[in-house]
Description:
Elements: H1 2-26, H2 36-45, E1 49-53, H3 58-69, E2 75-78, H4 83-93, E3 100-104, E4 110-114, H5 116-127
Parallel strand pairs: 1-2
Antiparallel strand pairs: 1-3, 3-4
Amino acid sequence: MRPLIRLFFFVLRRLLMPFMLLYAALSKPKPVSRDAAVQAQVDADCKGLTLYQFNTCPFCIKVKKEVHRLALPITMANIQKDSNAKQKLQQEGGKSQVPCLHIVDHDGNEQWLYESAEINRYLQQRFAA
């Protein structure tokens, strides 16, 4: 039964993929504008952030729209195309759920944020202009 369910969702994802990609491309919000010095600081702060995602996940699209709106140069790790990223997410993050924001602060402390609403709230609190 489990392989049948997996096959169903695989086919469903393949059928919906073009629509999800089109929606993601057409619904991008306008990015915020910052002074060059402020944007340079934001760019530096984003070096410790990695978003584990895949392109047709609706929750990932929600987070990527917020990343675009806030003009954040966050590293994107596509777990469907990068087996190393998927393995790191499973081993270090503890789950293979996406979206997941991996945060490494200046002291080297790591945090793994799951849930799109929680990730967006974190990004808004930390980077909202």
